[in-house]
Design goal:
- By secondary structure, the chain is mostly beta strands.
- The protein has a single domain, classed as Porin (Beta Barrel), CATH 2.40.160.
- It has one helix at 3-18, and strands spanning 22-37, 51-64, 69-79, 87-100, 103-110, 143-151, 155-162, 188-189, 197-206, 209-219, 224-229, 235-242, 244-256, 259-269, 274-286, 295-305, 320-329, 337-345, 351-362, 365-375, 391-399.
- Strand 2 (51-64) and strand 3 (69-79) form a beta hairpin.
Length: 400
Amino acid sequence: MRKNHVSVLLVFSMIGLHSIVNGATFKGEVEGRYYYYGEDSLFSEQSDHRSQYALATTLDYNGQINRNIDINVSVFGRYHPQAHTPYQSDVRELALNYYASQLEVSGGVLMERWGVLEAFSPVDILNPRDRVEDFQGDIKRGIPGGRLSWLLDDGRIDAWLLPYSREERLAEGKDRFRTSAFSFSDAEFEKGQNAVSAAARISQMLESVEFAVSYYNGHARSPYFTPNLNGIGNVIALQPNYARIEQAGLELLWVRGQVLVKLESIYRSTNADNFTGLGIGLEREFPRIGSSKNGLTLYGEYYYDGRESNRSSPLTPFQNDIFLGFRLALNNLSGTEYELRLTRDLDNHSSFWDLRAKTRIKQQWFIEASLYKFSNVDNDPALKSFASDSRSAINVIFGF
């Protein structure tokens, strides 16, 4: 059965479940999107439409079957006629959860989030990303598996068993934000796509400090690429390859009044490369500015990644970078917020500007606007393919 048909069937199943479970909530969003690109596309196969539009929807269902069992479902769908795949859908979460005293058990399609940093979380390894919906990797794909959790007084111990690895969704063909001019062939998973991945994480809160340590053994969630050649040695496509990795992670959040000190660190091992990654950050909140109701949050982060440029470790844009930003919340009835974010590569001197704004325009109606701007990326191997992808966008959202 095609995955689009599976998602439609799941939506009707959610509606049916709504009538047989207790305390169920069914909510969602319908979103109209408009994009404008300031330059023609870089690659000939990409869509040459500077103005593009899309329609997307997200449906979320949470229901309690009995006192000890509940279910969480999240389904996404999108129509974008200028995209490589105009119709796209995904089951981001479909989890059955059992609770008993200090024990929790979950199984199905899981959505997990680790980390404390704003721009990028090196430790967040369980779910693959959807780079078409958001090239920065903030949107993730659900991963099939099970989780067993033991609740402590001020923390928890979690263990995951993941019997199947999904691919990261990559931009290709007509899509903007492509990382390569070549198309992709079928992905290859070291030891097979059904090779089991496993993870464990211990998190604890000690007064003003929260920390977590984690370990993961399984497929990398981002691929490295090898060329497919024709008979005369020309590259005709790139093959995504998902290596088996081991990764140990540390997360730390220290609260000092209105200041948050953040840290994430990893050590990753592959067959061909062992390296350390690090992110440190400060966040300062001003709940009120002067006599106004406006709140301001300032944040700054630094990232380092020691991976070598070899075939088993995929390229990352956060190898020696700083991230600065602010968020202004007007604290009005419309929930108006403005945000400015800057990522600066200290090696290649490239910059990425990200400006966002959102507000409620009427009851269940919202509007969001954003501007992406790439500067001086020609010498940055992680961003140079986005040189023509500076974009403004307006999204109108109806929530129900």
